[in-house]
Automatic annotation (TrEMBL):
Organism whose genome encodes this protein: Lepidothrix coronata (blue-crowned manakin)
Entry function: Putative receptor for purines coupled to G-proteins.
Entry's localization field: Cell membrane
Identification of the protein by name: Putative P2Y purinoceptor 10
Residue span, G-protein coupled receptors family 1 profile domain: 50-306
Amino acid sequence: MTHLPHTTTDTSSSPVMIQSNQSCSSDNITFKSTLYATTYTLIFIPGLLANSAALWVLCRFISRKSKAIIFMINLAVADLAHVLSLPLRIYYYINHTWPFGSFLCLLCFYLKYLNMYASICFLTCISIQRYFFLYQPFKAKDWKRRYDVAISAVVWLFVGVACLPFPIMRGYGLANNSHTCFADLQVRPIRSSVATVLMTGMAELFGFVGPLVIILFCTWKTKNSLRGFHIPQENSGERRKAQRMVSMCAVVFCVCFAPYHINFFFYMLVKENVITDCFLSTITLYTQPFCLSLASLDCCLDPIIYFFMTSEFQDQISRHSSMAIRSRLMSKESGSSVKE
C-alpha cells in the first residue's frame, strides 16, 4: 500500500484524505515548543548537578563490592549525555531555528533515544541483579566485576545500533530545510502499512514490554522474599534495600517510559497514515509532547536510586558534607581568632 508523503500534495489523492491530514497535522499543536522549552529548562540544572555528583561519588568512593555499581555508573553516563544536549534543545524551542547544522541536530536527537533505551536496559539490569543476588547470595559472593563491565558493553552496543533508525527515520528532508530540528523533523514515509505495524510492534516489544515484564516480576519477587521462608538466611536490612531499589526502578520505568511507549505505537501509525481517523490522530499528536517530556524526567529521577537506595552512597555524601561543614567552621573560627 502506497502512502502520501507528509510534505507533498498529490493532486490525484482524495480531497478528503488531504483535508484530514491538514486538520490533524501536528503543525496545529502550537504549545509544544513552549512545553519542551519549559520542561528542558527545569530539568537541565537539577539533572546536571545530580548526575555529575552521582557519577563522581560512584566512580571515586563506592567500594568495589557494591551491588549494581557498574550499572549505576552507566545509567548516570547515559543521563548526563542527554542532559548536556538540553541547552541546544532549549535554544531551538525558544528561537524556532537551528543554526548548528544537520549533523549536530541528528546527534542530539539520537542522544535522546540512546539515553531512553540505555536507561531502560540498565534499570532492567539493576533489577535482575538485585533479585538474583537476593535469591542466590552465595553466587553473589563469587560474582566478578568484569561480568558487569562485559554486560554493560553489550548493552551499549545493542542500544547504540537499535537507536540508529530514529535519526534515520526523522532525518527525512533535513537537507532541504536545515533550520528545523527535533519535534519538527519529518518522518520518513514507509511504503507498507504492514511493515510500519511490524517495525513499531517489534520496537515496542523489545524496548518496552519485555523490560517492563522483567522489572515488574523482579519487584514482585523481591517483595515476596520479605515474607518468604524459603530464602537462604540473609540480613533483613539487605532484603529491604534490594526491595526498595527494585521498586524504585519500577517507579521510574512506569512514570517516565510507560506513557511514551503506549502513545508511541499510535504516534507512528498516525505519522505513516496507517491511522487516518481525525479524532484518534488528534489525541495521539496532542498527547505526544507530554509523553516525551515525561520521558526526559528520568534524568532527574534516576539519581534517586543512587542517593536514597544505596547506603554506601548516603554514607559518602554525608561524610563529605560534614567534612565540608567542619572545614568552613574551622576557617571561620580561625578568622575570628585572628581578629581578636
